[in-house]
Amino acid sequence: MPSIETLAILSIAIPWLGALVVWLVRDHRPALQHGLSVAFALAGGVAAVAMIPQRTEANVLGVALGSAFGELTFLPDGLGVFLAVVATVVGSLAVIFSVDYMRGERQLGRYYALVLFFIGAMVGLVLSSNLLLVFVFWEITAFCSYALISFYNDDPKAVAAGIKALIMTQIGGVGLLGGALLLYVYQGTYDVPTFLAHANALPAGVLAVMAFGFLVAAAAKSAQFPFQTWLPDAMEAPTPISALIHAATMVNAGVYLLARFYPAFEGVPNWRLAVIVVGAVTALLAALMAIVSNDLKRVLAHSTVSQLGYMVYAVGSGGIFASQFHLLSHSVFKALLFLAAGAVIHAVGTRDMRQMGGLGKQMPFTRVVFIIGALALAGIPVLNGFWSKELVLEAGLMHAPIWSYVLMLIGAGLTAFYTYRMVTMVFYGEAHGHAHGDAGTAMKIALAPLALGALSTWLLAGPFAKLLSAETLPYHGIEAASTFHILEEVISLPTLIALAVVALGLLAWVFRSKLAGLGRALRGLGWAAENSFGFEAINRGIVRGVSGAAEGLRITQTGLLNWNVVGIVAGLLIVIAILALGA
Amino acid sequence: MTLSLPALAAAAVLGLLGIGVAGLLVTRNLIKVVVGIQVMTKGGMLAMVLAGYLSGRVQTGAALALTVIVADTIVSVVALAFAVQVRRRFGTLDLQALSTLRR
Amino acid sequence: MFDLLIVAATLLCALQAIRSPRLLMSALWLASASALTALLMYLLGAPEVAVIELSVGAGLVTVLFVFAINIAGEEVTDLRALVPRPLAWLAALGAMGLGAWMAIPGLRAPAGPFPEPAFAAVLWEQRGLDVLLQVVLIIGGVLGVLGLLAEGRVHARKEKQS
After folding, report:
1. What's the ipTM?
2. Which of C98, C102, C104 is the best mutation test for A, with the most CBs of A within 10 A?
3. Looking at the partner chain, which of C26, C79, C110 has a beta carbon nearest the beta carbon of B35?
4. Is the full-model pTM beyond 0.80?
5. What angle (nearest 5°) sits at the alpha carbon of residue A536, between those of residues A258 and A526?
6. Smallest Cα distance from C66 to chain B, Å
7. What are the helix (H) ranges across C44-127?
8. Structural domains of chain B sorted by starting position, each given as residue range(s) with its CATH number in brackets
């Protein structure tokens, strides 16, 4: 069994090596590209899973880079290893799915190279314990996401969506970089465990700036309020990418950041409240937007944003275990839903749900797995979504303001409503479209493990708690307990209330014709939801403002050497004046 | 201020730098730009030797000045080749006529 | 007194190099400025570098200028400056003044000469990396010039083919 250092490096290096190899195999051998990508992705998954028993709380593998950058260290503790496993395993399944989905597409080399590059960078992000290295991997994942969203780069919508995603996540990246630099200025190191141990040594103002900077970075990356507009537009990407990057891995990076640094920031005044507000508002807004959307992938995108809001809310309430458990469940069932939706879209040729319907008879396998995922999303008992969502709500009930708990409860009801709507519009009712057969073999191979996972990952609650316990995460205070013990907490009165709300949501869809009056009364809200509550208008306004400012400043770019030299000399004068007067 | 050698040399350095920059600011001919850069580099070279003189390590200062000479010569060679090509392609060496950045 | 004259002459030659309307005269004034700078460097105690500057600055670069001016041709340009002259001189004088203010504290009597090996030893042993970089620069410059000046031939070949 290789050492933990080797495994940590391998789980990053194998996907990266795969990216290079698949790129070098030219595009005229697609079968070889498909095969190599699957092989490298699976090998990366094996390396990540092998790290689980060897997790440690000490830094491994320090590469000293001089005093300016500190040491490049990796910290394969429970949290990091868990997310690395999620990234590589779901990544492998998405790659397997791509074998069927991308069959016959052009430029497969670029596609697979970027996917594998992304998987390696994601693993690097969660394993790093040098803040600057975390930032570097953060930016690499943002780049891969942009390149993959714009994969169909002759479609202007896709390109625009990619640029939008890039700009919004980069704004968040500034928050992360600022926090990292502040840490270096005040403590002389970028090392994460050192920071967590001595967080209170920083001046209160500086710690607050870092905390809110990290919150901005996490909100931008995980498409939370007020940055939630990029994720629905990112659905222009090929569906396996939507499943991998925008449901199961990259958007988790924001929640990971909040969870990892929670012990350092929990004392900052109003930080926890801000996190709770961000999570709750996002969850509700996104659920409302999902109800009025007619594009299958957009409904799932809004649903992802909403569920991420639940995870962020859990972190804000102090329930780190609940948030990570929900992250695990969500990764599984959301990837399942996206991949199944991909199979449907591939078969029907459109993303518009109004042109589907009655597909259940033509695509039986897909219908079954999709319904499993939908039940998990809605929080129906026995599936993994139920257990994790109830844990989140319990954490919120105990530690968060009661109004936020009520909002989340309403959100759970809305989730059930739009999920049931989605399932009936696609698989039941009148057939408005025609499917060219059921999902392909590779698609089925990818979908089956995810469906089994949605049915069963809740059984891993006990070992999962042990993974995140104080063995390797000394500052987070998560206790290891048995599965039964954890799940027993869920069987209680608040859970019954939540189940009642979920049932209400389901029944509301079933009896929607009788509730038409209510529907008409809420039409204003529906119109606001369709226009994304004004956030797209804000985006357009910002773009207009920046373009206008750039045009106005164009006059300073004369293109003449003489004026450029004037600029240089003026700068020099200012610098010398400052030095002379300050000396 | 005494007219000692270091003071005079410092005046020469600053004077050369200033004249060179003024030249870059007022000239419109590409080759005159190269002349301006050359004047500035003479000042820089002198500054290296002067620094060596003032700190007692003249030879180190001279070695640095040698680097400046070599770099400056290469710059002037490449810049003059560039100017010759510009003259051939666009028929003029006037900076304003060459500028295509404005609307 | 002698030093003052040399410095004054250097500055005068530089000024004339900038102001002269004809390019060839500019090049010649630049050559004399180089020669006087070499003399100053000799007076400061660095004779080897002074000789190098004399041969390269006053010799090689002047020849290059003369070649370039002959090939490119003299051109009668409109002498109206794009940046107003007063502004330019003000900026230059401002920079010089501030620079002088900052430099004055450093102009004490020179520190006692530290024992140093001869110039050649300093150059090759202590500043060896600099020499390596200079070689790289020279190679780069040669490649740049070849690239810049060879384009004419490529175009001619393309025109012959079409």
Report:
1. 0.89
2. C98
3. C26
4. no
5. 95
6. 10
7. 47-53, 61-72, 85-103, 119-121
8. 5-94 (1.10.287.3510)
